[in-house]
Amino acid sequence: MMTLRGRLIVRPFGKGTDGVVLRVSPREQWILSYRAEGLLAALAGRRVEVTGRACDKQGEALAGPHFDLAALTEL
User: Fold this and answer.
1) Which of 5, 10, 30, 56 could pair covalently with 36 via S-S, beta carbons 3.0-4.6 A apart?
2) Under 8 Å CB-to-CB from 19, ≥6 apart: which residues?
3) In terms of C-beta density within 10 A (0-12 exposed, 13-18 middle, 19 or more buried), how is residue 67 classed?
4) d(CA 66, CA 16)
């Protein structure tokens, strides 16, 4: 398990869907979801702390590292 802090960003991921990334720094961001729905969409643009784990097979991720979210707290 790991904890990260950053800003939730909703952006187009192609194929008509908006995804959600956690921007930790200008050079580090993690993909949280390929669909901006529910709490993730409601907290777009806000600073949050997330707990979870890095997904397996990160070397195969073309859009960036993926994060399996276990908990989310607004800062």
Assistant:
1) 10
2) 10, 11, 12, 13, 31, 32, 33, 34, 35, 36
3) buried
4) 20
Token pair for 43? 């907290």
Q: Taking residues 38-60, what's their average pLDDT? A: 88
Structure tokens at 57: 């097979």
Which residues 6+ apart lie within 8 Å of 53 measured at CB? 1, 2, 67, 68, 70
Q: Of 63, 69, 5, 4, which is closest to residue 39 (Cα–Cα)?
A: 69
Six token digits for residue 51? 């707990």
Rounded to two decimals, the pTM is 0.87
